[in-house]
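Is flavin-adenine dinucleotide placement plausible here? Inputs below.
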Amino acid sequence: MISSTMPRRATKRGDQRTQLRGDCDVLICGASFAGLAVARELAGTGADVLVVDRYEIGERQTSACAMPTDWLHAMGLQESLRQTFGELVIHSPHATARYRLPWTFSTFDYRALCALLAEQGSFEFETAKVDGRTGGAVHTDRGEIRAPLIVDALGWRRVLGDGENIQPPDALLSRGLEVHPRGSGDELEIWIDRAYVPAGYGWSFPAGEELRIGVGSFDPRFHVREPTVRLATDLAADAVRYQGNWIPHALRDATEDGVFFAGDSAGHCLPLTAEGIRTALYFGLACGRELRAVIEGNQTRAQALARYHAFSADHATAFAWMLRVQRLIPRVAPRLLGRSLRAMEHQRFLDWSFGHYLNIAHPGFVAGWSGGRRARIPVAAA
Ligand SMILES: Cc1cc2nc3c(=O)[nH]c(=O)nc-3n(C[C@H](O)[C@H](O)[C@H](O)COP(=O)(O)OP(=O)(O)OC[C@H]3O[C@@H](n4cnc5c(N)ncnc54)[C@H](O)[C@@H]3O)c2cc1C
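Reply from A.M.:
I modeled the complex. Tokens:
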């Protein structure tokens, strides 16, 4: 079991890549936000839980690592916090708007957060590349693993899906790239500026002694490397330590052919903002609670699949709205955009809109608040 002794060794290579044992009660594929959140909810059940990832836990940062501070606290992950921001600064060609948020955002250290989250679970961990699935058997480069409960938390590729994997640039994916130069700053900044990206935005998120500067494009055909370098150069920062990935911007079925999908594999990243960490945690917790109820004999696997599917689908309206706004903003003329961004500085509007935005995946869910969702999720015993 991994709890409190999370390995920090490098990914297994060569002779170390022995065959894995063949079965377990729960197989969680992917050990980032979604996968580790699922595992957390299974702690103390006594189930034989195996988590696999092609890299060691926390080895490869997958994002700019900013999320609502309350989520870090609710999950007991505050030790990973790097910097907190009460204001969001949005630059556009004709205006800069400053939004005083009704709640704060924080940047955090990916490796530290993953270590803390992993410590909350009790599971075995192995590095293995997951290649696909036939029924209840998952194929990895270290052999086949069978489990009655299988979770795909592998990110946008949805490796364990039944049909064809969605492939960029044709799929509903955005693309994001960032650099991590040394430096510091006090502001969480966003650029909505066609000079950088026709549909999307640039960002600079300070995180203690480093900046995370990047560009995301909602159009997967638009290449973001050159504008990312240009934004960093404009901010007098070095374009070093690259990190990038595809980001889904459409909700997908959260279950398929007996498999549970959580995080980017289910399209749980929010359109428009590309905020996918808290939602990966949120749906990961929801998935874990359903699995826990199965393990404890309180429901069948089929019931868990149905309930988790319904819970995820219950968020479709919010995701659809965000996608509509994502498609609208690039069409707004720059002058009108500047005026609109300034008009939204009114505190009552900010409290209302950002309040609704937080409610899509509210930190209260960690303690069991369902936010009035139809599919009620049992809270794991403390
Ligand atoms: C440049 C960029 C910046 C971003 N910034 C933010 C941000 O600041 N805030 C925010 O909320 N969201 C941000 N996002 C979105 C966010 O990163 C994702 O939504 C989030 O990481 C989803 O979490 P996840 O656990 O579902 O998947 P991931 O974090 O992608 O984790 C998937 C895991 O699966 C493993 N894996 C993948 N394929 C295989 C395989 N075949 N075999 C074995 N293991 C495999 C990976 O190693 C990884 O550990 C950003 C995205 C990008 C690209």
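Short version: The CA atoms of residues 261 and 327 lie 26 Å apart.
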